[in-house]
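hi! just following up on the protien thing from before. the input was this:
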Amino acid sequence: MGINFYLSYQWLHWTRPSGPPSSLPNGIERTFIKTAGGDIELLSAKPSEPISKTPIVFAHGGMGSAWVWIPYMKYLQERGITSYAVSTRGHGESWHPSFFRMMYATTKRMLGDDLVAGIKAVERMEGSEVVLVGHSSGGGLSQFIVNEGDVKVKGLGLLGAVPGTGSYHVYYNWWRFDPWFSLRMIFHGWHSNSPLSHPFLTRQAFFSPEYPDTKLLEFQRHLNRYESFLWPLGMLLPFIDAKKLVSNIAGWGKGDRILIMAGTGDKMMTKEVQQKSAATYREAVEEMAVEKRIDASLEKVQLLGGDGERDNSGKGVRLAFVPGAGHHVQNDVQWKIGAQKLLEFLRQL
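and the predicted 3d structure came back as:
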């Protein structure tokens, strides 16, 4: 049997996207936020009869955009919850830096500023602080801006998120399931999209084996044309102080305030990665409660019911898993299970 390391150039691009914005499903609206660099895309899904005054803001990960959150946004909209999703620069329909500027001169601080601009716009429109939910590197970015005090939030959801304690082991996990990663990058001239340059590679990294080919090709077409290298590099080492981050989340003592969730089929943000993140934040909450810096309940960690029977809650942090789902829990075939677990977290805030 021959070796196939899926060397393809079909899905690699070196220029900004052109043409009209992509279409959106009914119930999802697109607006733009003015920033010094350019316009930032903001998607919204507003129910006709909202049951909560607290909006949700979603943050995408690397190679993604606000588009990846549409399934969750529609799900929450149908249940009376308002949500928004931001596309940072170089993603979705937001303004795009040039190839080299995006790859080599766009930092996590710059992308964080775009996310903050989106959150501030939502706060002005809705008159409320938000619950911030970030996926993958967007989960890392969410931790970063809360840690820095750029925003204060009512809750923080981290879905398959880069851990704030550093991500070296995450990229080691990627290399383990794709050992041709480095060699392929050389053939691709170190293009940022090399690891996802073929649908097989995208499925392998992001989805379960059951994910339909038609959906996979649609997802592939929505991937970024190129991505920032400095964003993930800026998260290789620890980049948050857990106690400082906890201090910028409001409402302690009234249910869990942090949700950590991932698919059991996630090859990068594995069960061990999620458990370590939960332990890090639970330790921070406990120390701050003992120091009387927050009024948090310190009940023992207890198992929760639901799909998978692996979820637990305690010390203000909820740890949940979506059985069978890959890294993109919000898009994989099991997405409704994750959406329901997010909804349960939101309802208990």
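The radius of gyration is 19 Å.
Residues 29-347 form a domain with the Rossmann fold fold (CATH 3.40.50.1820).
cheers
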